[in-house]
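Reviewer 2 asked us to include a model.

Predict the structure of this chain.
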Amino acid sequence: MKIAPKTRAAVLSEALPHLQRFAGQVIVVKYGGNALAESTEDAMEVFARDIALLQAVGMKPVVVHGGGPQISAMMNRLGKQSTFHNGLRVTDAETIEIVGMVLLGTINPMLVSMINKAGANAAGVSGQDMGLFQCVQRDVALGFVGDITAVNPAAVQGLLDDEVVPVVATIGTDEHGQMYNINADTAASALAVSLKATKILFLTDIAGVMRDPNDAESVISTLSTAQAAALQADGIITGGMIPKVESCLHAVQGGVSAAHILDGRVAHVALLELLTDTGVGTMFVPDEVVS
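Predicted model (structure tokens):
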């Protein structure tokens, strides 16, 4: 589709105040496993170019990725059945090896390579590096599934200081060096707070929080902490949306200016949110912003 020069100029002009506002600011982008699973290689290249663009215009993007569907697919290929307890993957000794293989051996280097190809310098970071994500076992019944107890962002901050895009795999270790699988939404939120990020974007496979799950036009554009709690109490925020919303709320309660749930299947969705006046998806802000 050809775009008239006048329209192109208007788009660029609209982006200017947003470029000025976010220059030098840390922007955490969580690229969800579901968004990855539904992306083609071309779509991932578009995502990588967008990240490179954000860095080129002066922002400090940090990519955090999950890999749930890819882990399940690898387990199936290896003849191992995925088992879930209270919605979380039971992670025995063999499964944690597969988690490491998929996150560190496949997804992380793939994203790093694509961002590098797009013209930005990127480097992979494991949650094990320099004690980035320190954790404890959540539940014996879940095996090697961890809850974050502390974040040491030194490895990520060092890359940012060197103008490198960190690409973070969400695994962690306990005090004994044992590796644990960590919920990627939780990890991204904790890292955003630790880095004092201005924004965190959760790219997933839904358009945002919807009043009617069957109506894509019912996306709620802005929610405060109190409003989100009310929607959860009313049963509008349910199931898999609950941990995503809780991660958004944790981020804004921890000092991040805004958190966003966006449809990662939409081309350039991060740019649409950051560089346009209207934005897309659902934005979470502190109560005082909408009071």
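The chain has one domain: 26-207+214-290. The first strand starts at residue 26 and ends at 31. We have added this to the supplementary material.
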